[in-house]
Design goal:
about 140 residues, alpha+beta, five-stranded antiparallel beta sheet
Length: about 140
Amino acid sequence: MKNGLLPGVEATVRIMVTDEMLAAFDGEVIHPVLSTVSMIYHMEKAGRDVILPFLEEDEEGCGFAVEIKHVGPAVIGQEVVFHAVCTEVTDTRVVCEVTAHTALGRVGYGSFTQALFKKEDMKRRIQDLQKQVEATR
């Protein structure tokens, strides 16, 4: 990890809610508002943007834990601002406080933890898992 990733580093992602982001199951829209899945996706994106400038070429991060509350709606055409602030950094984890809000109120909040690892280690783990899956077919 490059120097500089400390608590307080932040990133922001802005999106406009579209039809594809609505709360739906099996193609049926349940509520015409930003889905929890879409909200968490963009919170995770903001958290990833926090770590990207600090990853070495041989390093990567991946989602490890999310603790999120979805507390308000956002409708089609409404801008949602996702904000991530680093709150903790260790050799193997980065924790960010994440929020989502519109001009009219809070949509969600919580924390997102990313695991840090060497790309080669993850590649090897994925290959080993793929071999195990193929062996059971």
